[in-house]
């Protein structure tokens, strides 16, 4: 086995977080879709798919390294948001939480001297920087536009945000 039981268990937990994130992003996408903000909806549908892909990537790593795969239950996502700003804030908060979780996995892999895991997890570290920056920018744009001018956010997204 190329992975310790402790690290495999921690990655299994992260798999659950990633699947939960996917469900949360589907809920946020639905919020925007219902508001007829289709560019924002599309962005979050893509985010949801990415989070699912992250879960599968982690899942395959556990299996490929001979670890025991134990898929955890996911928590129910928040389905309603008082505003578009609140929905994007929720996404940013989630990305910051995931960043901390990935850091914890990296710390655990380092403490175990697991260089394979550290190398594998570096992709997630880099991905989290990109994801946090994306949500910070989007939140800034949504705040500048305000709830009454979200069509300008839609235009911003169309033109290559």
Automatic annotation (TrEMBL):
What is this enzyme's class at the first EC digit?
oxidoreductase
Q: Where in the cell is it found?
A: Cytoplasm
**UniProt family annotation:** Belongs to the ferritin family. Prokaryotic subfamily.
- Name-wise, this protein is Ferritin
**Reaction catalyzed:** 4 Fe(2+) + O2 + 6 H2O = 4 iron(III) oxide-hydroxide + 12 H(+)
GO molecular-function annotation terms? ferric iron binding; ferrous iron binding; ferroxidase activity
In UniProt terms, what function does this protein have? Iron-storage protein.
Q: Which residues form the Ferritin-like diiron domain?
A: 1-146
Q: Which GO terms describe its cellular component?
A: cytosol
EC code = 1.16.3.2
Q: Matching CDD domains, A to Z? A: Nonheme_Ferritin
- Gene Ontology biological-process annotations: intracellular iron ion homeostasis; iron ion transport
**Keyword line:** Cytoplasm, Iron, Iron storage, Metal-binding, Oxidoreductase
InterPro entries from the UniProt entry: Ferritin, Ferritin-like, Ferritin-like_diiron, Ferritin-like_SF, Ferritin_DPS_dom, Ferritin_prok
Q: Which Gene3D superfamilies does the protein's record reference?
A: 1.20.1260.10
Q: Which coarse location class describes where this protein primarily resides? A: cytoplasm
Its domain of life reads Bacteria
Coiled-coil residue spans: none
Binding residues for Fe cation:
18, 51, 54, 95, 128
């Amino acid at each position: 086995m190329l992975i310790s039981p402790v690290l495999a268990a921690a990655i299994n937990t992260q798999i659950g977080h990633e699947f939960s994130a996917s469900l949360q992003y589907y809920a946020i996408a639905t919020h925007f879709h219902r508001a007829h903000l289709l560019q924002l909806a599309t962005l979050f549908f893509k985010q949801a798919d990415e989070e699912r892909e992250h879960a599968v990537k982690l899942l395959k790593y556990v299996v490929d390294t001979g670890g025991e795969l134990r898929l955890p239950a996911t928590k129910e996502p928040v389905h309603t948001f008082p505003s578009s700003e609140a929905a994007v804030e929720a996404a940013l908060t989630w990305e910051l939480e995931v960043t901390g979780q990935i850091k914890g996995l990296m710390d655990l892999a380092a403490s175990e001297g697991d260089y394979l895991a550290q190398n594998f997890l570096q992709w997630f570290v880099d991905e989290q920087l990109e994801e946090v920056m994306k949500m910070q920018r989007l939140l800034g744009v949504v705040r500048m536009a305000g709830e009454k001018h979200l069509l300008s956010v839609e235009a911003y997204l169309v033109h290559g945000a």
